[in-house]
Structures are given as C-alpha cells and as structure tokens.
Write a structure and sequence with these properties.
Number of strands: 4
Helix content: 40-55%
Number of helices: 6
Radius of gyration: 28 Å
Order of helices and strands: HHEEEHHHHE
Oligomer: single chain
Distance between the termini: 93 Å
Strand content: 15-25%
Shape: elongated
Length: 175
C-alpha cells in the first residue's frame, strides 16, 4: 500500500514537471516570436532618440541631405503608368512618372527596391485630386510637387533619406 502511494505521488510529480516544462516552452516560443515580429533581431541601424526627435521637430530638414548641384542629373521613369479615379467624379487620371536626382548611386537603387511602396503612395496622392484641382492653372506643378514630397517621405521612412529633386510627367491624361 505504501508502494502504491509512493508510485502515485511520483507520477503526480512527473506530471506537474511535464506541465511546467510545457508552459515554459510555450512562453519562450511566444516571447521569441514576438521579438522576431517586432524586428528586435534585425541588424539595421537604430535611430537615436535625439535624431528621431530632431526629425519630428523638423530640425534636420534638409541638413542630412546635401544636394550636389554640380553633379549630372539622372532620370528614372517608373515602368507602368499610374491610373486612378478623380475624387468624387467619374473622371480618371493616368500619369506616367519620371523622377530626377543627382545622387543616382543611392537614390535609384532605393527607388527600385521600394517601387511598390512608392507606387502606392503616389496613387494615394493622385486619388485625392478633384475636378477643381484639374481645372486650376497650376495643376501639373502642384501635383508634381505633392508627388515629389510623397516619394521623398516614403524613401525617408524606408531608407532614412530621400533624394528625389523633381517629378516629371512623361504622360498625363485626364478623361
């Protein structure tokens, strides 16, 4: 009878140890998965708190990017045209976009690498165009400026720097 109680108690201890070990494994997997998902194991450079604060305050606006105006401009045309509806209208806008930069070694690989994000951002800008905007005398210039700002903002968010100096329309159709 004492042997049976000893065997039952040892079985209970083994069961508790197995449950505890299982819980530790599940918790460890959850913590590891969370760290991987948040990018804790990435080797990408981190932005210091001071740099992030200065960027939010606009203190480094333009200071981190010095454009060499003596460098030869380089152009890149996005392969496919952008097509979107005009806001609150049955009209559409189709544009074939090219960019100009003087820092081709850095900017063009970034543009090609983040092509989908840039196209999405440009479409977001273009879908906000209204019929009143289209009828304005500065429509092309205003849209080009908004697209340039959107491209540079996306590149800064993705890579830490912009570098696009100008957006050009190689084709622009409003129907």
């Amino acid at each position: 009878m004492a042997d049976e109680q000893l065997e039952k108690s040892s079985n209970s201890v083994v069961k508790l140890a197995m449950i505890g070990l299982g819980a530790v494994i599940v918790i460890g997997a959850a913590v590891g998965g969370t760290l991987m998902a948040t990018g804790a194991f990435n080797d990408e450079p981190k932005v210091s708190a001071e740099d992030a604060l200065a960027q939010l305050e606009g203190a480094d606006e333009g200071s981190s990017e010095v454009i060499d105006t003596s460098a030869e401009p380089v152009y890149h045309e996005f392969e496919r045209p952008l097509l979107t509806n005009v806001a609150n209208s049955r009209k559409i806008v189709q544009a074939k976009i090219a960019i100009m930069t003087r820092d081709a070694e850095t900017v063009l690989p970034n543009v090609q690498k983040h092509d989908f994000a840039l196209r999405s951002e440009m479409l977001d800008v273009m879908r906000k165009v209204t019929e009143t905007d289209i009828d304005g005398p500065e429509f092309r210039d205003d849209l080009a400026l908004k697209l340039k700002d959107a491209i540079n903002s996306t590149l800064k968010r993705m890579t830490g720097r912009g570098g696009v100096e100008e957006v050009l329309f190689t084709e622009l159709v409003v129907q």
